[in-house]
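Pipeline run #58 for the internal structure catalog. This entry was flagged by the ingest filter as a single-chain record with no existing model, so it goes straight to prediction. Upstream metadata was stripped on purpose; only the residue string is passed forward. Reviewer on rotation: M.T. Logging verbosity set to normal.
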Amino acid sequence: MKNIIKYTLAAVAAISLSNCTGDFEEINTNRYGYSDEELTQQNNHIGSGFSTMFDNIIRTNPGWNYQLQQNLNADIFSGYMASPTPFAGNINNQTYSLVDGWNGFIWNDAYDGNDGNGVIPFGQRINDIVEASGNANSMLFIYLANTIKVMGMHRVSDIFGPIRYSKYGDYETTGEYDSQEVAYKTFFKELDEAVDGLEAFEGNLQFVPFDKSNFSKAEVGKANIARWRGFANALRLRLAIRVSKVDPVLAKTEGEKSLSSNAGFLENGDMRVGMNGFSHPLMEISNGWGDIAMSAEMESILKGFNDPRISSYFSAPADVTLGNFKGVRQGIKIDAKSEYGSHSLLGPFIAEPTKIWMTQAEVHFLKAEAALRGWAGAGDAKANYEAGVRAAFNLASASNVDAYLADTTSTPADYVDANNPANNYAYPSDVKIAYNAAGTLEEQLEQIITQKWIAMFPDGQEAWSEFRRTGYPRKFPVVVNNSGGTIDTDIQIRRINFVQAEKDVNGANVDIAVGYLKGPDTGGTRLWWDTGLPNF
């Protein structure tokens, strides 16, 4: 982004004009007033809404929208990337001075979008149209819309905590929030229904014209409902693991449903979504604008592990004196972009014009942790761990995976700042690559999550969530903390506060939502599933 001030003002204007709860007046408008003709035309009255849902979960066009929706928050908070650009005099998200005009895009893309319709309004609209039709054959669209909606809205909940979700569809209650616990239980209910309900539609072609996933691209004209069913089942397993510390009984119940389901997971390929022909905005943000670079944690872990994926994920520094790869530590004092602008930018891995929603590698790591937790059907932790690493290597087109998995000595390297030794950091763990099945549960979990973190790149949202849940991998604290004491430097950022535009138009309900939190509406307050307790 060449001028972050311009887009911050645009963000404030867009959010203020759309009013995040501006959809109140339209929730019940003409809710069931669709003509018979509309209800019988090639399903376009239903399917046209899916495009907006696909696009807004991770909004990649224009590039600055992605930069504000995810890159200058979760991608950085996860430890994947850091910015060499001292936006707003270095007083910004990266130094824990949370910028409402940036972070509002996370909320806006979920609820309103650039055209007044985000992920959840279109999901609700699809549900309403199908219910109005009374056509049981169209239930397929409800199951798919709910799966996509859960994919998008669990990410929003994992940022803010309480969200408007289960009561969204009724005018009288659409402004009301669910606690994160209630939201997650609703997610599970909808995924359970989708996994079960989609089975009857395997082979059905109704969704083919509207499907923007790689499932449709792989086999053009063929129904891939079985693959969608597997994705819904994998998503259920992701969320089951997410709540494993705060509600072990719920987690085990939902996780074992996934593990025993005949839906399978992502055996036929990763879940990717097309970007309407556009390249991934990270290419522009990093290699065009120079606003995002390799993180210090990525340098420490990948270089310490001699990980061949490093040359796929990142590029060599423009300054050859820095060596092969050089990262930037988040939250340090930066006076000018020139100080760290010559460090490693992002590499060819992000060049493919698709968004990754979930990979086979992630599923293997989920199963590895499920095995550690004793869930039936999870299999062997070591076998799942190694399968996850292999799948991740395959995705990054990296070689020598056998030697990598056999490495019993390599550990993450200490970080040395190229400009200022005050930013140096000794990596606080000797976690290794070769799986140690004789290690403690905690030691095994650190191995699993560290490799899962590497494998999920560049999706900083999931990586940040897993760091908050488990504490792994070890992420470096900021050096400059401009939060005014609301975010503990050592505990690090746990969430993003509710955006001002939502408070302005829905303040009473936001106040109730704050009451669902474990503390004040700040970045230092933990979410429901972020217990801060031991992992086992």
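catalog note: Residues 4-26+35-516 form a domain with the Serine Threonine Protein Phosphatase 5, Tetratricopeptide repeat fold (CATH 1.25.40.390).
catalog note: Residues 1-21, 28-36 have pLDDT under 50 and may be disordered.
status: ready for reviewer M.T.
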